Amino acid sequence: MAKLPLYATGIMGTFAILLMAAAGEEDALQKKAQEIFQPLPKNMATEEFPITRERVELGRSLFFDPRLTIDASMSCSSCHQPAFYGTDALPKPMGVKQRPHPRHVPTNLNAGTSFVIHWRGDRTNLEDQVFQALTSPITSGQPDENAVIDRLSRMPGYAPLFKAAFPDEPQPMTLRNIAKAVGAYERTLVTPSPFDAYLAGNQPALPQAARAGLEKFINTGCVACHNGVGIGGGMYRKFGVVEDYWKATASDPIDKGRFDVTKDPDDLYVFRVASLRNVAMTPPYFHDGSVATLPEAVKVMARVQLGVTLNDADTRDILAFLESLTGELPANFATAPVLPPGAVVPAK
Amino acid sequence: MAKLPLYATGIMGTFAILLMAAAGEEDALQKKAQEIFQPLPKNMATEEFPITRERVELGRSLFFDPRLTIDASMSCSSCHQPAFYGTDALPKPMGVKQRPHPRHVPTNLNAGTSFVIHWRGDRTNLEDQVFQALTSPITSGQPDENAVIDRLSRMPGYAPLFKAAFPDEPQPMTLRNIAKAVGAYERTLVTPSPFDAYLAGNQPALPQAARAGLEKFINTGCVACHNGVGIGGGMYRKFGVVEDYWKATASDPIDKGRFDVTKDPDDLYVFRVASLRNVAMTPPYFHDGSVATLPEAVKVMARVQLGVTLNDADTRDILAFLESLTGELPANFATAPVLPPGAVVPAK
């Protein structure tokens, strides 16, 4: 290196110190993030709900098969569409026979990371959700277990799949096993994102704007609720801590949330905190889909939960962070399975 | 080769002659098949309807996007589901707002090989079908072009796709161009099958039972209508030549077919001959989906079109041939595209 005048080495020294300080701040930010969040696991199997190849294969077929529902027109994938990252782009979906669902569709991607299922937590886990959906008047329209099993029995291709998935059971074709199989499939649907790479130690995996957004996301207080492996999905919270939520959204009607389940006044306007994974791909937002765009949703949250008015620059940075939570669509979700052929004549 | 007694060489000679005779018959069958049928082209582009990468990409997104329809709940893929080889497993589908479609869904796979579109031929080609569907009260429910374009305009991701697909047009977002793009996509959806390999010269590509079935399919007279590249789809024919079709099916109501389009008495009960490609994967059968299984459909056809009562062995062979018409699902159909994000509030 050529010799430099003293003032120049002084400037370079300052620059190096600034760089080091910046690097130190970046490391501190990453360390903080690693305390608040966890990267996605490889899958979401549990001891109670294990994954086997056969259950996943069966569950995947069932997930995409509309023939289980009363008019054979809606499958799990009708609301949880791959093309919309496991959602349907609607404020609220229509169920069978034009019966409206009361709340917005949350994505089924990474859903096994949530501590309960549904906005009001009235499903204990994925398997419970599927089990109840199979005879729900809105989701399925089928009157009982017999009606669903009768449908499946008419398609000869399904019996061997059930036998393979539940080899020890003499009569494996049951609602409980449908729920276990679809649950097993859903527990494979994880979408690791640039933010997961960052949490795992790869600092440059997160673009600079996203790192700035992460810092603001932490410092603004969003992480009080949106934390853990799901960046949300880990607790209940009142929607509208500082201000009634419906004053900031286009909500109609006003949903009382978990109160309608428990009748406990403490649960008034309480919902499960939404996971923010893939949030940029899943508009509209909130339990009623009442806000159409992500910038608007971020501003509403800051206002009604934290009493903060975000300026456009801060919002942009936070959006850059939220966009880093988009992962790749799992191949076994993006690609529809070929279903066991069989025509059904739907019940009227 | 060891020397053999005379009687042994005599036996072997007879055997060789029989083998040669059989080989000669196999060659004759293949030659006949090559006169009657043609293998699928690589795609179904025409001079009038060319394929470009950009049009196919746009068309594929539009095909899977339910946001074009009035309640944003149905896309082309709702009836033409990849999981059912481009059909929906129903006798007749339900359109938007529970408005029933009058006829069974034919697969969109290889559909560009058909000489006209729809059972009654009232759509001249794929593009005409899409164009009319976009404002059909049953298929779409949208009142006019403006309503559809307004929907698309709300999703910022679409404008660049239209610009890329139709680079010379100042206002490329039109119903005509939607139709051209979806048509271009559909013209890529070909499913080459073992039978195509056989037609191209690979005799063993067709299993023995299928070759026996092919011979019966030819000799019974099925090929009078089911011929050409689509093994059907090339002409109109009366359904019920020997006997009224509804005496052999569960048809209700009785559909007068093309007569209702042309009012020409010669068109009474006349329909487009169905293509038999992928027929084993697309139950139920006929214009009204009135027959649930393929063996039954084969027997009905032999009976009402040809006055032939097929025995079970012949039916089995013909089924083996029909199963050889199943090709692999095209990758750009099996896998759903990720759509431009954007929430819609559907019209009431």
Walk me through what this model shows:
Two copies of one chain form a homodimer. Chain A is mainly α and about 350 residues long. Chain A is built from 13 helices and two strands; from the N terminus they run αααααααααβαβααα. The first copy, chain A, has helices at about 5-35, 55-65, 75-80, 125-135, 145-155, 160-165, 175-185, 195-200, 210-220, 260, 295-305, 310-325, 330-335, and strands at about 235-240, 270. In chain A, strands 1-2 form a two-stranded antiparallel sheet. In chain A, α2 (about 55-65) crosses α7 (about 175-185). The N and C termini of chain A lie far apart (about 85 Å). The mean pLDDT of chain A is about 95. The interface between A and B is large, with 41 and 41 residues.
**Strand fraction of chain A:** under 5%
The side-by-side strand order for the widest beta sheet of chain A comes to: 1-2
Number of helices of chain A: 13
Note the gap between the termini of chain A: 85 Å
Overall mean confidence score, pLDDT of chain A: 95
Q: How is the biggest beta sheet of chain A arranged? A: 2 strands, antiparallel
Q: From the alpha carbons, calculate the radius of gyration of chain A and give it in angstroms.
A: 24 Å
Shape of chain A: globular
Q: SSE order of chain A, as H and E? A: HHHHHHHHHEHEHHH
